[in-house]
Hints:
By secondary structure, the chain is mostly helical. The chain has 4 helices and no strands.
Amino acid sequence: MSPDRLVxxxxxxxxxxxxxxxxxxxxxxxDHLRKFWDPSMRxxxxxxxxxxxxxxxxxxxxxxxxxxx
Length: 69
């Protein structure tokens, strides 16, 4: 799957959690990615974040980093 598509999908998940307290949103996004994204998708978005993560909303970027670390 293309990085652009992964960024779009991750940001859409982030929009769902945007009304929550930041840490709850980060945790919720990371949990969603862990539960519902294929391992290859998680590896791809993590690799994308390691190259800068351009286009990811800040809370999503933080969630992917938490997921990877």
